[in-house]
Amino acid sequence: MWYQHLFQTERGRQCLASHRRELCRMLWQQWSPYWRFDESAFERTAASFGNPDFVDVVIHAYRRSFGLAAGDPAYEELEERLARRPKITVPAVTLGRNERHA
Fold first, then answer.
1. Is the pLDDT of residue 76 over 80?
2. Does the global pTM surpass 0.85?
């Protein structure tokens, strides 16, 4: 979760802009510590890091999730409808397949 807070700052934006490949590789490793991705898998994805909009899109997404950036006005009505829905107040568990044990 540390990077989510980092991306709220200008320093985080600069870090992502200057070190996007290194930072993204580290995050891949942290998010999936048992996934032993090979270099070709990383390189196929890393091509997207060079997109001129990559940093802006990533930073906006994280800032939006913290309520620090405005959403797309085209979806404002939908956002308002979703906000009126009752909050989920029961414990929840997400299950996923662990490739290490597949």
1. yes
2. no
pLDDT tens per residue across span 88-102: 889 888 777 666 554
| Cα-based torsion angle of the residue sequence 96, 63, 15, 46 in order, rounded to the nearest 10 degrees | 40
Non-local (6+) Cβ contacts of 46 within 8 A are: 21, 24, 25
Contact present, 6 and 12 (Cβ < 8 Å): yes
Domain residue limits at 82: 2-101
Number of domains into which the chain is organized:
1
